[in-house]
Amino acid sequence: MKRTFLFLWGVAVAIAVATVALPCLADEVAVLKNGFTIQHERREVVGELTRLYMSSDGGNFVDVPTADIDHYEEAPPLPVAATSKLNQAADVRPSAFPARPTSDLSEVVNQASGRYRLDPDLVNSVIKAESGFKVRAVSPKGAQGLMQLMPGTAGQLGVANAFDPEANVDGGTRYLRELLERYNFDLVKALAAYNAGPQRVEKFGGVPPFRETQAYVARIVKDFNKKKVAQEKSGSMPATIPSKRTATAKSSHPTSRAASGAPRAGTMVNAKTVQASE
Q1: Which contiguous run of DSSP H or E holds residue 73?
Q2: CATH class of 25-76
Q3: DSSP code of 256?
Q4: 130 in catalytic set
């Protein structure tokens, strides 16, 4: 009897371990603690992060801190039309959790990226570095929301409420686009200016010698390139853009050559001159 019990217990443990280790393959929605939902085709835990795959080939994904995920729900069978927002708000499925906003972060990012002609993977990488996808994040210096807009910058961009996800992402993406144009589409300089301010970038002729800014730029470039490498390996790079197109983004010298165009889908960023001090 004792041996039978130990055997069954061992089988139960093995099943539990296998369940944790194997990725979930069901089409579902991750509901974050900040109220956002992210629809994905599958997921798997990678260290302290949960990787949410947007496509079945694994080329498009978002890494979210596991602790920031509240729960998972079954994905709706059909997308809700944009003209039926009232019906969507009224359609609340029974759940043991309190009602939450149903904003889809990926959709918010995709819309803003489309408006300002940027790669949504880049915008997601900036959001991850800025706020960790926390809608109500506030930095010690007073930056607010998903893309950490300072009150003055938010005002200049016409963002009345920095904690409104759509307004914040729209303003932050627009600001990033403006910085890219200002620095002739040198992504490293644009990211450094987003973090430390354009005045410091122009004062030092590139990335300021601040550990925080250098680590910030390196972290975003590393995360962005990781997504591009995964897409290239899976063959999911957009057909309209060459998969091996490289945007050189050297910022160690004021006369360095800039990238020829804004970072869009399929663009790799070479930023070896940035110190990867994380």
Answers
A1: strand 69-74
A2: mainly beta
A3: P
A4: yes
| Element containing residue 44 per DSSP (H, E) | strand 42-46
Residue of 41, 48, 74, 130 with catalytic role: 130
CB 41 within 8 A of CB 61: no
- Show me where the domains of the chain are located: 25-76, 103-182, 185-278
Q: Does domain 103-182 have CATH number 1.10.530.10?
A: yes
* Tens digit of each residue's pLDDT (9 = 90 or more) over 60-82: 777 888 888 888 888 776 544 43
Q: What is the pTM of this model?
A: 0.60
Residue-wise pLDDT for 3-52, tens only, equals: 544 444 444 444 343 334 345 555 788 887 876 778 778 888 988 888 88
In this structure, what is the dihedral angle of CA atoms 204, 173, 59, 129, given to the nearest 10 degrees?
50
Q: To 10 degrees, the CA torsion angle through 40, 44, 45, 49?
A: -30
Instruction: For the chain, give the mean pLDDT.
Output: 74
